[in-house]
Amino acid sequence: MLIEILAEADISMTKAVQALERELSNIRTGRASASLVEEIEIEAYGATQPIKAVASVSVPEARMLVLQPWDKSLIEVIERALEKSSLGITPGNDGNVIRLPFPPLSEDRRNELVKIVFQKVEESKVSLRNVRRSAIEDIREAEKEKMVSEDDARRAVEDLEELTQKQVKNMDEAGKRKEGEVLEV
After folding, report:
1. Angstrom distance (rounded) from CA 132 to CA 59
2. How far is 22 from 10, CA to CA, in rounded Å?
3. CB neighbour class for 134 (10 Å; exposed up to 12, middle 13-18, buried from 19)
4. CATH 1.10.132.20, the chain: domain bounds
5. CATH architecture of 2-26+106-183
6. What's the pLDDT tens digit per position in 70-85?
7. For residue 45, what are the CA distances in angstroms to 40, 53, 98?
8. Which has the closest alpha carbon to 25: 36, 41, 38?
9. Any residues with CB less than 8 A from the CB of 122 and at least 6 apart, and which?
10. 20 vs 168: CA distance, rounded Å
11. pLDDT digits (tens, 9 = 90+) for 123-181
12. pLDDT band at 12 (very low <50, low <70, confident <90, very high)
């Protein structure tokens, strides 16, 4: 019973860390990264889909992304989606490919991005605490219904705390790594 509760909490916490890392990969650094545009949604073929489903994204140099749609008729649609996105970069198109030049980040913008990184880390920590709270409630319920002893419940809560601290540390490390990337000139 307790093993299942802890295993479920571990899985949920690991997913929260992975979700944070995915979100952080979408924050712009001084370098171009395909992950910045791959998930931007476009309307194509009567459905909404991510850019990565209709175009290849490459990084020919540190400050340039090149998108090559497999269907040339989608160039304007992709270009409009990029203009509407939160990237703040004007795409250029030569009829075959779309180029996204990334200007260097100003110091103020870097500091703003660092604040956003740590805001996302804090939001993710809240989700970890929610998982922990839910697991503790499950443990207390099992103890209350006499399915586990008081000592086993206490040990399970201690194990859960260790697990939570480990995942919080993983989130902090991910935030520090991203901060280093953003502040790198």
Report:
1. 40
2. 18
3. middle
4. 2-26+106-183
5. Orthogonal Bundle (1.10)
6. 888 888 888 888 888 8
7. 16, 11, 19
8. 36
9. none
10. 11
11. 999 999 999 999 999 999 999 998 989 999 999 999 999 999 999 999 999 999 999 88
12. very high
Residue 20's nearest CA partner among 150, 123, 155 is: 123
Structure tokens at 107: 């110091």
Say which residue the tokens 């949604």 belong to: 41
Angle among Cα 132, 138, 142 to the nearest 5 degrees reads 145
On whether the CB atoms of residues 148 and 142 are closer than 8 A, the answer is yes
User: Of 177, 160, 180, which is closest to residue 4 (Cα–Cα)?
Assistant: 160
Distance CA 102, CA 9 (A): 40
What residue has token string 């175009």? 55
**pLDDT for the residue numbered 35:** 79
Mean pLDDT (the chain) is 88
CA distances from residue 182 to 23, 33, 113, 173 in whole angstroms, order as listed: 14, 12, 7, 14
The domain defined by 34-101 carries CATH number 3.30.1360.40: yes
Q: With bands split at pLDDT 50, 70 and 90, how would you rate the model's confidence at 185?
A: low
Could you tell me the two tokens for 183? 């502040």
